[in-house]
Amino acid sequence: MDLTPFKNCLAHTKSMFITTNGDTKSCCYFDIDLPSKLNWDTHNKLLSEVDISKACKHCINIESSGTSWSHRKIFNENRDYVISIFFDSMCNQACVTCFPEISSSAAKEWYDSDFINKIEYDRVRKIPQYGDNKLDLVKDIVSRKPNDNIIIEVYGGEPTSSPHLIPMIEWLVKNNYSKNITLSLISNGSRVLKNIENHLTNFKAIKVSFSIDGVNEQFTYLRWSTKFQTLQDNIDVYYKLSKEHSNLLLSYNYTLSWMNALVFFDFLDWMYGRYDNIGTYLTKLVGKDYFSVDVLSDETRNVLLEKAKKYDNVNAHRAISYYVDYISGRVAPPNKIKIQQAIDHMQKLDKVRKTDCIALFSDIIELENTYGK
Questions:
Q1: Tens digit of pLDDT for each residue in 160-215?
Q2: Upper half-sphere CA count for residue 21 (Cβ side, 13 Å)
Q3: Full-model pTM
Q4: Are 173 and 152 in contact (CB under 8 A)?
């Protein structure tokens, strides 16, 4: 395969992704963490030396599978410089598909469920100590581009739980950089950003992307343990503000796994029935491959594609096209054993949570039991 498009991907020059452990890379899917010690010059030197066939294998695999869209295609000449950052792992949710390095609550649940030992648990609990150094790197990059439009994407953990978010906002405002900054929060929607109305007057724009992987009880299970009603109440607050402030932009990101592939249409019904003008994006889960939609049988996938074909809402065209792309494009073969591994994983969580994953995901499990081999 010709690697030229991946070598020339503008993510390498128009983006920096700062990981939870203090390394850097081009973007979230870049598969090699650069030990840059949070230094701009070191990052760029190490980046020039990487093996693209390994570092960019996510997009290479996605495009090789026949999927028409890959992450590299969001970068173009007109795109603002993007700083994507995990300040820390502070989070009030223990999502089923998350990792202990990314969520403090997931780390605790993994330890309680015997997925990690005490040594590993203590290691991931130290991740928040890198936050001050990461904030210094953000300041350094912004200071190098004082007149440029910049997007700062804050991930988590949960951004609104991070002790570094407000100090960063205050520094950007104090030094008059905020007028060129689009602040993007990748949030679980469990709380509303403090003093958001004041911030809206200072920033070029504020974007809030809500990570939602289902509705009602399935949402609560996958995004443990925020109640769906709490999420809905908080989105209502943001939604009302977006009607009053044109620079507050809202969207949803749905992380597609085999567990929520069937209820995606219930999510669309809820979303379009309650809100308008909120974009919906899909991410195909790649971490923990036994949760991936790729493990589903071809017959089950055909049932899902037929449901997508029949879903009748003109506003959902883009979301449905992403869905069809991800269900159709396969980077791994069907694997009933991996589905059972996923169930085993969730049943370990069930013992701690006092929940029942089999009952919650019975529809998709029964569908796969009918067709899967």
A1: 999 999 999 999 999 999 999 999 999 999 999 989 999 999 999 999 999 999 99
A2: 12
A3: 0.91
A4: no
Burial of 327 (0-12, 13-18, 19+ CB in 10 A): buried
Q: Look up residue 373 and give its two tokens.
A: 């081999």
Please check whether residue 358 is in contact with residue 369, taking contact to mean a CB–CB distance below 8 angstroms.
Answer: no
Q: In sequence order, which ranges of 89-164 are alpha helices (DSSP H)? A: 104-112, 118-125, 131-144
* Separation of alpha carbons 46 and 44, rounded Å: 6
CB within 8 Å of 316: residues ≥ 6 apart = 268, 272, 280
Tell me whether strands 94-95 and 81-86 are parallel, antiparallel or unpaired. Answer: unpaired
State what percent of residues in the chain have pLDDT above 70.
99
CB 361 within 8 A of CB 218: yes
Element (H, E) at 16: strand 15-18
CA pair distance 26, 13, nearest whole angstrom: 8
Residue located via tokens 């019975």: 362
Look-up of token digits 């059972």:
340
Q: What is the dihedral of CA 298, 212, 272, 368, to 10 degrees?
A: 20
Tokens coding 11: 């993510």
Tokens of 332: 């791994």
Q: Distance from CA of residue 147 to its chain's centroid? A: 29
Pairing of strands 94-95, 223-224: antiparallel
β-strand pairing of 81-86 with 15-18:
parallel
Q: Say if residues 173 and 119 touch (Cβ distance below 8 Å).
A: no
- Do you find a cis peptide bond into 104, omega within 30 degrees of 0? no
Q: What is the CA radius of gyration of the chain?
A: 20
